[in-house]
Amino acid sequence: MSHVVDDAREAGREAAARGAWTEAYEILVAAEKELQPEDLERLAEAAWWVGRLDESIERREAAYKAWLKEGEKRRAALVAIFISQDLFNKASLERASGWFANAERLLADEPESVEHGYLASTRALTAMIQGNNDSALSCAERAHELGVRFEDRDLQAIALVTLGRTHLLSGNPSEGVRLLDEASAAALSGELQPFSTGLVYCITITSCNGVGDLRRAAEWTKAATRWCSKQDVPGFPGACRIHHSTMLRLNGEWAEAEAEALRACDEVREYDPYATGIGWYEVGEIRRFRGDFAAAEEAYRQAKIWRKEPEPGLSLLRLAQGKVEAAARGIERSLAANESNPVALVRRLTAQVEIALAQGKLRVARSAADELEKLVDDFRLGEERTPAFEAMVCLSWGRIEMEENDVERAATHLQKGLDTWQSVGAPYEAAKVRMLLGRALRKLGDEDGARDELEAARAVFVQLGAVLDAQTAAELLGEVPVSRTFVFTDIVESTRLAEALGEEKWQKLLAWHDRTVRALIEEHGGEVIKQTGDGFFAAFERPGDAVEAAVAVQRALDGHDGIAPDVRIGLHAGGAFAKDETDYGGQGVHAAARIGALAGAGEILASEETLAGGASGRHATKDAREVELKGISEPVRVVVLDWRS
Asked: Which residue segments constitute the domains of the chain, with CATH numbers given?
């Protein structure tokens, strides 16, 4: 029996050493009753990495008791520090304080050691989070000195990254970034333990994002993502996903960013409420940009539940909803609550400029822009301001100068802001500035230049799915929204059918399908806008014609002599704008596409709004229900048309 236990312990140690945390957890938990204190620590770490925080804390408590029993006070104190950190992240502050006090008591009469360094490091991290920068710097410097003296690279790196972030928060970005890069280089080299590696990456990326150094944040996010992908874990845990989500959002990959953030929230909610809140805030931002206000509000509400103040996003949402006074009150409260945090103030002051101008309070906007300029001027990397912060300053002054009719200066600021956002790879932010630049050029009499900027901005908005911004750009281009009934058709399981028929027969069948569907759409007065893979996107001026065309398509396929593909069809009548002479965009198009995606094989699914527009009574309907459509703020009632009747 002893031999079996020894083998299990050794296998668990080996699995933990190579970062195979799931394997290590399963092996060690099976032999838990026979584990030595150091093996209990390994089991606790494995449980932490596989997302079992409560079990991790229990195993660390067991290791703590075992070390005390053996008289190893320093080792017990180190375990107590880790328990305290876990409980702090879990927001169990009283228990965290109690375990930290245990560690202090055990080390009080011990000669100075590396464990004292971890004590100082924890004090530094806590002070940094609480905004006590002087204490954070002092404790982190002591932790680093002890790390060097006792040759503990993990302690040195954690101290360096804490010093770096604290310098950034204190308005000393050049020194802060230097220290962050030094700590992250140690993580990149592979010389640190997994927890230390993840912590260093997490603090570095958060810090670089916070001060608007998005290029550096993107570089370290890529490095962290590569590291996470090599681990037998989903992230740190999940924190890597949140950083990755932020980068995806800034790069305009909104669908992927939202999915990544939601997955991260699910992974970290049990042991890091604040990280969960950041994830929900990211989701709220994406939904606000899309114009999905109800979903954005829910995401911001979740962020607040998980201890993340949802600002300035929530106030900007209120502004977009037309609730200008509520937006102003919200941003003023947030500014007051963060008056000692220069990083937080930058984004909030940028929002206050926009909100104050909407109120007609030019003096408030100018005051906010002046304060913003001073803050951003302190965030210099060498001779240059950090890029994102510089772009925010340019945008704010551009807005104000447009309001003051100083259009030439506004155009200069807006062009610089556009160039800066483009340099960091943020298409949505660049398009927002580009739209304002288009307005400025129009006021300067450069109509060709104005249209170029507005058309480029609209193209980005349409690509991203920023529906309301795309409509605003279309209005500035003089395009009056039109009302159409949009139809999407799609062959169901085309890949399986192609494999069953073989390439030659499939191509013949596909060609017949394309000719038939196109002809029936045009026969009923519709316009084929484009082919979408194995289907069509069409527009009709009258909803009744769209319904009859859809019915005709299904009947033609059903009556085909031989094999015919199953097709699903979605219809929606709504407003849209003409992207150009041959295409449409806007909420009506998005709704029709998403209704089509919900239809089953051989089914016609239509919004009730379509039938209310003159197509009711021609065919029986069934299965009426409300559906949530991505990007649409309110549920939509849909029905199935019984085309066989």
From this structure: 2-248 (1.25.40.10), 390-475 (1.25.40.10), 482-641 (3.30.70.1230)
